[in-house]
Amino acid sequence: MSRYRIRTIIDVRSRTEYIQQGKIYDAKVRNIVGTLQSEVAVAPMQIPDIQYHEIDLNGSSYERTLLRRLRYTSLAKLIALMTMGRRTEAISVLGKEVIQPRGLVGQARDSINSSGHESKQVFKILADAESHPVFFHCTSGKDRTGLVALLLLLILEIPLNVVSADYMASEGQLTSERELRLRELKAMGLSDDFADYPPNWVNDVHEHIRKIYGSIHGYLELIGVDQALRCKIRSNIFKNTEAKSSEVCVYKGFYNCRPYIHTL
């Protein structure tokens, strides 16, 4: 964080992921401090002098979209599990019956259609010059982080082939965490495919935006990210330079939470 002088962190994970990650972190800390303090709750770590924003990108509207696709019996099961406090098991019902069949591309389409309010919150932060440099992340760094990065790069008018290549370049950087991710996905009712990077992801999501909303600008206008806001974002990223799209170099691993774009 100090290397890039990060001022702001945007966390787009869900509450279920907070719980899962909290358990993992808690177990690691308890292994260190020993059994004498094993019942002490471990608070999420925050770095001093950094502003934090927790924005569940796939929030209530997205959840309602998925719930409407469940069979009545599955919905009843999910509600029962939630009532008993078994949240992860409840989410696995959605995972198996709704998310898994639609795949990562389908998940992105649902986010595009349902999470406009949450996306606008992210871009309002990116439009604030005082927030930069900004670090944004989810859990795997490819679905919700990938979607935010895709929209951001399209705002910056980066060529689609460059965006796609950058998305795929991040896959190798998550190899060390693959086994952990596979266990988490299994708990949520998802297959190993959800740990991979579909080569067609960027093109398919972009085509969905074009087909349903006419263009990236049409979509952004609809969710409240108007031209003025987009200009502020471009100004913040390019640091008031006059660079054209063809003169922009995107750092490898942008999708893996390294939001820095520099002109050549």
**Apparent shape:** globular
How many β-strand stretches?
A: 5
Number of helices: 11
Instruction: Name the structural class.
Output: mainly alpha
Radius of gyration: 19 Å
* Overall residue-averaged pLDDT value: 82
Distance between the termini: 23 Å
Architecture overview:
The strands form two sheets. Strands 2-1-3 form a three-stranded parallel sheet, with no helix packed on it. The protein has eleven helices and five strands. The protein is globular, with a radius of gyration of 19 Å. Helix 3 (72-83) crosses helix 4 and helix 9 packs across helix 10. Mean pLDDT is 82; it is low at 32-42 and 240-264. By secondary structure, it is mainly α.
Q: What brief labels describe this structure?
A:
11 helices; 7% strand; mainly alpha; 5 strands; two-stranded antiparallel sheet; 264 residues; globular; disordered C terminus; single chain
Topology of this protein?
Elements (H helix, E strand, L loop, with lengths): L7 E4 L3 H19 L17 E4 L5 H8 L4 H12 L3 H28 L1 H11 L7 E4 L6 H12 L4 H10 L8 H10 L13 H13 L2 H8 L3 H12 L9 E3 L10 E3 L1
Parallel strand pairs: 1-2, 1-3
Antiparallel strand pairs: 4-5
Helix pairs in contact: 2-4, 3-4, 4-9, 9-10
Quick summary:
The protein has 264 residues and is mainly α. Helix content is 54%, strand content 7%. The C terminus is likely disordered.
